């Protein structure tokens, strides 16, 4: 599977789990206060996980950009085009 398909699958899996959790909580036989507390705790947990995933995706994107820059430099060098480091940022 390509990297984008894997990321899409993981994202879909995450959203499905979140929806399933919310539906389960709303239909669970608990008091409203308990339900709100659980939703709040899980909301914080999910937010933290989303931030972590965002950071991972940011790092991956940064790495890919650097790889593309290096490949572009190699191609330009093979073609005899001189570039300065400040030009590619």
TrEMBL record:
Zinc keyword on record: no
Coiled-coil ranges from the UniProt annotation: 51-78
Transmembrane segments: 6-28
Pfam families, per database record: YtxH
Superkingdom classification of source: Bacteria
Sorted UniProt keywords: Coiled coil, Membrane, Transmembrane, Transmembrane helix
Protein name: YtxH domain-containing protein
Organism for this UniProt entry: Caldisericum exile (strain DSM 21853 / NBRC 104410 / AZM16c01)
């Amino acid at each position: 599977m390509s990297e984008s398909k894997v990321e899409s699958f993981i994202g879909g899996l995450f959203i499905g789990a979140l929806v399933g959790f919310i539906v389960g909580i709303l239909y669970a036989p608990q008091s409203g206060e308990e339900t709100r507390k659980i939703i709040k705790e899980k909301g914080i947990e999910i937010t933290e996980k989303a931030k972590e995933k965002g950071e991972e995706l940011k790092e991956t994107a940064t790495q890919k950009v650097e790889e593309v820059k290096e490949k572009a430099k190699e191609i330009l060098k093979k073609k005899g085009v001189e570039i300065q480091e400040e030009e590619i940022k």
